[in-house]
């Protein structure tokens, strides 16, 4: 079989395959008025198999249908694809609808029978007309068979008294027929299994909002559905198993990330691919509006325009592509650019005597639409255009000579982009997308503007010349926040001068421009609450202290509606006290606010509450009187007619359904409000600014900026779509320009993130003030909350988009929390990261510093410099790519250390030079190696050979039963283990110390897939004692990040890491709670061990001597907690005890800790709380250590197993041993560097 993407699949018909059917593709010609029969469910609609519909309208993108119950449906052409349809003028007998006035039957005579006649009679039509090819044959055929209805049908169809009593045989037949009927009905009506319902809800709900999403998001939503909708629960393993079933069916896809699995849907992926195909199809597909010469001539006369504005005009006017992109930051003058571009195109078309083109502006919000109109560009919302085309109200041919200007494109969803690009491609129009990938993204799934921008397959202009901000401090703040440097941005806001006194009618109490209400008195909980209480009062007082003119030019931003209501209350009270609003009593007026619910949620009972208002998309407003969850229905009252009826959420497709909360809010003459929903009948557009000129219990009169007054009946729900405009959310403020901004930010709120910080600061042209309840917490939120959605394509490809540096601003490294330890900036961490950033430039940087390499000594794993013994080697492959060693001086380390050594400069000077190199690599002849990522995962030849040899040793080994290895384990752990997948015994393992072989216990270190990466060798005597060698244990292979898996337990939230395989095996023998157990070779391996598969809480099991270094303990704890784990250390002081006693005592302590943790866990709210924590604390990657904690395997260890006298192998591996790094020496060197840096500060 071949799927829609041309991918081949094999289907074995002898296996138990999922149900499928075979169909013949064909084209069905339809027209308005046609009757259609739906022969299979249509995905994402309420149209089911056997439904009959009539076509009302045909649009370019879809059809408007009405079913036999009078209910309307809008279905896109893409939804009809691969759907079984037929004309609805005739049907088969078994699918015919009964109860019609007249039935017409087309029947060949040979098909007639008494059974057919009986079935026709059951249609209960008053008139039956039969059309046949031979009436006589038909009549004869009907007499050849007898009617044999079921027993139940005989009894139910009887018109008179039953002539016989029911005997036992008839009774059995009745029971049988009733049972069959009931089972059939149950099969038709039976709910899907709970886990299927829960996962389906989770996928549909989350995928409405995001194209790529975390596994934890799906688990939380599936559990919420089970608990809130069904009153029960589902378990994470069930959810995971069902998701993998769906993945096997190719309806969902996933990719593994460091913080867990991420998912997307096949539909989302295909939508994004289709969008990119639409964009690609537009390359070179149309004629340019103007020639390059015409554009240059026109722009030469517009000297006042910025370079970015000119580039945008030139691109739009002269391109031969259907699509272009303008990525423009806030305040660069995109609207002005569009105005000038339109004028140029009109002039060029007039000169060429072409048919004038139509320019139509589009935007997702009414605010952006209004701004386009102010520039003289006809505009409407994108949603309204697509609806007109889909319903057939507007034909696509209308736009054949149109230039679409889609503003704020970064807020458009996948669905909108898909429908819009389909319209553009099929109509032959042109489109320019304008947006900013750093401002707010779509609230629905996808980020197609950014996806298109980053593919770099479409002609693009980046407008960077910011003109809005009129002070250098404010301009710097905006540039810093675009560069994602929030601390520098906040510092620039603080650097502003106070607002001039002319803006105040009474002296301001604030001279600072960033005001934090938090005062630390040593009582954190009380301090935080007092800070919140003060926050809104202080912000309101600042606003009220300004003159009316200044207030009119001041935008106050608050992120949540709760905060907006609180501020509006304080401001209205202040305005009344100052006489700016009448002091008399207010009139209570109904206000409606949208309740955020997805279409999938609206199909359930979860979002509905008594008192909420349902709007079905027409003029109907239904108030919920009662929520009947048991029967899944709502008792509602039509607020227009007063009629009481029922509303069944599951029976609606909710394409037009909205849910509103209703409240009574005070209004008086002079109140400033915003109209929130477009109403053509009232001639009011969404986001229109109004002032209340008159209000009473019957009517409300509002006046716009143009002086036009509209009187609204307050009892009509249509008059309730208003809100106070004393404040706006960041979402409402996007696209606005004002002189002054007051931003009121709750530091730890969910909505506080860097994108909204950008909106806040960039709205102001003259001055910005920030009020917060905790400046430090605010900075943490800005640093860590990015609110970055991922596309489906990015999710599957695991694409990471690093921050682009758009402006040459002064950067502060101490802004980044990864350079902090215990809350303080640590220069060595910053230096280590700089070294990592330089690693992609390893080859060119080494040559820049050291000259040309010695080609005779270099290979694919190392660059060698110098001659003879005076040699420096740079590692090119593996985890130590970019590290060097100078065999003459003994210098070694990463690229920072190489800069120090080669330039003979200090550590801090090397850091400064490294910063310069990374900022301007071309000035230092640095070239990034495109194969860098691949080289990092490429093992050096020597390590690869060691790994291969280690695997050979392990595979040659035998089970440990009745071997010196089992004796050793029993003597050291009191655990008599006979076999284990990670343990082997080998008679002859080579040791470079004795130049001979010894018996050995072999323990495998595996990766997440279970593949062996390295082997730990424990040398033994034939009697099972530890061998008398200086190095009793060795590691062979690639150990970094890998561990010895000893037990995969069932305890859901605890894992144990044992230091030393002996400690781990000791715990296996006393594993009362069946906990996960892995072992590492030594404490330093905890820095690099992969913790993705480990549980939330980790117990580290060791003796006191193994974890005696407090700095190491701090480092390990910091690393694991950064990855979202909580840590317990079980390190006992057990001097003088036998090894086996040590293992048992530590195991007992571990079991005690597990028991305590289990008891604590039962007091928590289990899965949902934990999932929420996982989301808010994603796993972070950790830098790898160059240092090795164990002596490296000797050169001869590779091949001695077969032949001790292999001198060639010995010579080769001696070079490898020299190329490795000693752990202890490296640790000493690090401590010296730390000490050297102790006096430095930034």
From TrEMBL:
GO MF, any single term: helicase activity
Keyword flag Hydrolase: yes
InterPro entries, alphabetized: Conjug_relaxase_TraI, DUF7146, P-loop_NTPase
Keywords: ATP-binding, Helicase, Hydrolase, Nucleotide-binding
Domain DUF7146: 946-1045
Pfam family, one: AAA_30
NCBIfam families, alphabetized: TraI_TIGR
Name the UniProt record assigns to this protein: Conjugative transfer relaxase/helicase TraI
Taxonomic lineage from the root: Bacteria, Pseudomonadati, Pseudomonadota, Gammaproteobacteria, Vibrionales
